[in-house]
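S2.1 Query sequence (Ribosome maturation factor RimM)
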Amino acid sequence: MTATSPYLELGYVARAHGLRGEVAIRALDPASETLDTVDRIWVRTRAGVEREMRLEALRPTPKEDIVVLEGVESRNDAEALVGAKVFVFREDLEPPAEGEFFQGDLVGLDAVDANGNALGRVEEIWTTGEVPNLVIRASGREELVVPFADEFVPTVDLEARRIVIHPPEYVEAGRKGAESGGGPEDAE
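Output structure tokens follow.
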């Protein structure tokens, strides 16, 4: 979904929980507390059915949130939602501060280096450490994984749908080694 979409992808329904229709929603960002702040979500099932759903109750756990959704009354109802993508309404969220971005707005941006050379497109965001990592892919190129920090991502232009990347040295060293036929240890 684009930056102008009324929704931001939050995560997915990981599994049914219990017998009374609860579902476990796993956020793409494990540290996200967004679900605690909204009363409704937008759900897109694997079959492509989309609908708004109201949250009736939420119980956080270390890996996911256990949620009661309006109209989901049984385990069968809950199992029908497993694998569904979960979105939040942009209008229900506080706008990001100056220089900050919703992670979902970064996915789909074209990535270029400081000289404007195409590196690929931001396809995913991995949140495995203190800062998220942008996963940049392009046909015929190795995948780039770049920390989303000012040092490596000096410019984000949502209007132009473009992000400027300064890859970490180890990535550049690996690319030089690959171009010369050797591995990173052969790079200067």
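The longest helix spans residues 169-179. The CA atoms of residues 17 and 24 lie 6 Å apart.
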